[in-house]
Amino acid sequence: MSAAFRKAAKARQRPHRERAQPAARTKLGLLEKKKDYRLRAHDYHKKQNALRALQKKALDKNPDEFYFKMIRAEVKDGVHIIKQPKNEITPEQVKLMRTQDIKYVEMKRVAEAKKIEHLKAELHLLDAAGSAAGRHLFFVDTEREVREFDIAAHLDTVPELVDRVYNRPTIATLQREAVKGPTDPALLKKLAQQRKNQYDLLRQRIEREKAMFVISQKIQTRKDLLDKTHKVKVKKETTTAPAIYKFKFQRKR
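Structure tokens predicted for Probable U3 small nucleolar RNA-associated protein 11:
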């Protein structure tokens, strides 16, 4: 077939156009293409295969089969609901668990208290950077003494050691022996930062010990509420204190 013949045949071919939408069906939207029909058919057959698989599974199921969800589940208003198991713990068991909880919390609180005492013994309650500045008051009689007051002379030390609140030797001591401890500014700064970190750790442990004490009180209160004695709430529970109840007096044998 020559090139001229193929060109003439191609010119005689009519271009493919989509089928026109009838005026009566305009309100129903555009006609679906062949590709859309294929997708719908594929989805239909997929669902039919899934239904046949479920039917086969239901027919093969043993009618005498039992599993525990059969008695813990039900359909209510078309919704599948699983029944929650009832709490089978007796009040005596709850009270015993409360006691065990209190013992554990008290054990942790005592451990924190021991660590706090150990940190206090190490730090000797020295002033840390960022803490409230201590005040050292000196009393004089006249205004002239106030203007001419010399702290170094009054403390009998050198001016370089005036800012120290500890390890501040007198001039007589310095004449006999050298200053004990580090004197390098960089090392002193490093030690001050370490001391500040230790004070931060001490503060955190004190707060943790207080929190555990509050938790222990709240657990004890809940344990006491298990008693059937008539009680009246006097004060609500807060984040820092348990609730306060007033119990009816009952004489014990």
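The first helix runs from residue 3 to 12.
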